[in-house]
């Protein structure tokens, strides 16, 4: 990260370039992603912010190898992503649907490890560590539907952590929990980044959240989507829900991101 | 303690109406002189004499074996083929017209053909039961597999879950409730076909016994056979419910 001579793409953990995607064909063809480009360095906390319908989920699906883009490519540790990479774990917005109701909490967390050929004792310890990291060690034997929404999302995060990825990709992970829980979960992921050194890429439509969490905010325009700007967030590593959000710097960053999104929308309308 | 009370109350609800009906039947038929409606006490005596255990081995066991062979092979083929068809679009599209045609044939209509092809032995009966019981299981399995949440599929893809793990731990449990709907529907079809196949061509079996008794005017024996069939159907259903409770515990508790 310190070398300034090597091209950014080479040192980046994740690089997305020229990504384009349309849905449908003929008259109903609709371009969602026009030309999306950004990079994430190892250890980064990157947030991607854009209005609803901007194609954030589409972008994540293309990036993670779930959906083939029309053009462009994603590279993870230098290798092109064609199918879901083993070094990436996804956390979905809809936790209640992405957890399996017939498996206990610990069963859900260890499930992806079985396909990876991780031996049973190690599956156990990895799950215990991951559940402890999200503060759910005492709920291992319960079923997801016995937990609150926030706890379910913690299980989904623990599953992603136990998987042992280099990058953790989250699609509006806190959009469907209450404000109090949301703040707790935001601080939880910041804490995880600090302790475990995982790279985070988090998508949100909430500008406050995008600025609060990020080292850098990638601002998307509305569909057909491009990256409007990448805003560095110089708020230091330690963040606090009350103190950080009251700082003039935070307020001005938030306004900056807000203006960028609004300008992009007006730009689109003018065309 | 409260658990005990709950169990007792369930049992009471389950058995109170049947008990009332039995008592009424007992009372009304007690002094019956009718040839066709013998007193229940006589029917039960014959029931004990016949099925505990004089003709148990010669007539009941063969019926049970045919039922088990036919039904269980329908379960295996129905779930196996249903999962494959539910997951694979081309297979579903290729096989579907044949399935739609065959399932529209009432299995009883196949009896003459089955006798022609397989004779009147156990293979004919098991074959007819298999054919009739297959469709509810197959169609419900396909439906259950196809209605799996796309987000779940996306999750298994992103975590690189192997096909084997996915079928065993995701597809089958997710389709489980729907598969059991098929299993239950098929079970009653199977019992009906067991009887039908034994009435048409047979030298043993409960159905055969009932028909013989009627022809020889042993009306009490005929009733005893019918009581046995009723009990059989009831117990099989109960057994299936117990299995469902164990397999789909997560589903039942969640509701
Ligand atoms: N599978 C699909 N088929 C057709 N259109 C889709 C599909 N998925 C998303 N879209 C459309 O693409 C646009 C972007 O969707 P999405 O990526 O979910 O946006 P976001 O996550 O930013 O809200 C929306 O207008 C949506 O209706
Ligand atoms: Mg979305």
Automatic annotation (TrEMBL), chain A:
InterPro entries noted in UniProt: AAA+_ATPase (IPR003593), ABC_transporter-like_ATP-bd (IPR003439), ABC_transporter-like_CS (IPR017871), ABC_transporter_ATP-bind (IPR050166), P-loop_NTPase (IPR027417)
Location of the ABC transporter domain: 14-247
The UniProt record lists the keyword ATP-binding: yes
Keyword entries, A-Z: ATP-binding, Nucleotide-binding, Transport
Pfam families: ABC_tran
MF annotations from Gene Ontology: ATP binding
Domain of life, source organism: Bacteria
Identification of the protein by name: ABC transporter ATP-binding protein
Lineage summary: Bacteria, Bacillati, Actinomycetota, Actinomycetes, Streptosporangiales
Automatic annotation (TrEMBL), chain B:
Key words, A-Z: Cell membrane, Membrane, Transmembrane, Transmembrane helix, Transport
Record PROSITE patterns: ABC_TM1 (PS50928)
Pfam families: BPD_transp_1
Compartments reported by the entry: Cell membrane
TM ranges: 7-28, 68-88, 100-120, 126-145, 189-211, 223-243
Every ABC transmembrane type-1 domain range: 60-244
InterPro entries assigned to the protein according to its UniProt record, in alphabetical order: MetI-like, MetI-like_sf
Membrane-topology annotation of the record: Multi-pass membrane protein
SUPFAM superfamilies: MetI-like
Family indicated by similarity: Belongs to the binding-protein-dependent transport system permease family.
Name this polypeptide is given: ABC transporter permease
Organism field: Actinomadura fibrosa
């Amino acid at each position: 990260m310190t070398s300034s001579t090597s091209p950014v793409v080479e040192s980046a953990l994740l690089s997305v370039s020229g990504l384009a995607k349309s849905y449908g064909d003929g008259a109903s063809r609709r371009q969602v992603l026009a030309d999306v480009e950004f990079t994430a360095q190892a250890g980064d906390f990157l947030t991607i912010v854009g209005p609803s319908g901007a194609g954030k989920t589409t972008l994540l699906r293309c990036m993670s190898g779930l959906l083939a883009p029309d053009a462009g490519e994603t590279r993870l540790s230098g290798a092109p992503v064609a199918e879901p990479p083993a070094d990436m774990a996804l956390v979905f917005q809809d936790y209640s649907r992405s957890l399996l109701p017939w498996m206990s909490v610990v069963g859900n967390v260890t499930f992806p490890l079985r396909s990876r050929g991780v031996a049973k004792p190690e599956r156990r310890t990895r799950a215990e560590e991951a559940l402890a990291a999200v503060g759910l060690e005492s709920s291992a034997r319960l079923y997801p539907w016995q937990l609150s929404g926030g706890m379910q999302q913690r299980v989904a995060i623990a599953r992603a952590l136990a998987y042992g990825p280099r990058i953790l990709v989250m699609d509006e992970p806190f959009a469907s929990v209450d404000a109090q829980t949301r703040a707790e979960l935001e601080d939880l992921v910041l804490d995880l980044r600090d302790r475990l050194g995982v790279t985070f890429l988090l998508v949100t439509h909430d500008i406050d959240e995008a600025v609060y969490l990020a080292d850098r905010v990638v601002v998307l325009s509305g569909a057909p989507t491009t990256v409007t700007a990448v805003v560095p967030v110089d708020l230091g590593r330690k963040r606090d829900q009350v103190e950080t959000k009251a700082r003039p710097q935070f307020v001005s960053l938030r306004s900056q991101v807000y203006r960028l999104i609004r300008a992009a929308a007006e730009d689109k309308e003018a065309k | 303690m409260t658990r005990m009370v709950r169990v007792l109350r369930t049992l009471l609800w389950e058995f109170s109406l049947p008990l009332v009906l039995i008592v009424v039947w007992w009372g009304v038929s007690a002094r019956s002189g009718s040839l066709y409606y013998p007193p229940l006490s006589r029917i039960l005596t014959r029931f004990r004499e016949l099925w505990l255990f004089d003709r148990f081995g010669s007539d009941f066991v063969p019926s049970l074996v045919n039922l088990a062979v036919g039904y269980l092979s329908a379960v295996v083929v129905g779930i196996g083929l249903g999962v494959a068809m539910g997951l694979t679009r081309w297979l579903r599209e290729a096989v579907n017209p044949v399935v739609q045609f065959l399932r529209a044939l009432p299995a009883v209509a196949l009896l003459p053909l089955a006798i022609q092809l397989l004779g009147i032995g156990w293979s004919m009966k098991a074959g007819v039961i298999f054919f009739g019981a297959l469709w509810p299981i197959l169609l419900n399995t396909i439906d259950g597999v196809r209605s799996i949440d796309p987000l779940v599929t996306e999750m298994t893809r992103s975590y690189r879950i192997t096909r084997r793990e996915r079928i065993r731990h995701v597809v089958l449990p997710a389709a489980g409730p729907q598969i059991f709907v098929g299993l239950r529907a098929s079970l009653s079809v199977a019992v009906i076909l067991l009887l039908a196949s034994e009435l048409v061509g047979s030298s043993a079996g409960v159905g055969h016994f009932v028909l013989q008794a009627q022809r020889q005017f042993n009306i009490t024996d005929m009733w005893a056979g019918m009581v046995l069939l009723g009990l059989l159907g009831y117990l099989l259903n109960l057994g299936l419910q117990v299995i469902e409770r164990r397999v789909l515990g997560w589903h039942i508790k969640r509701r």
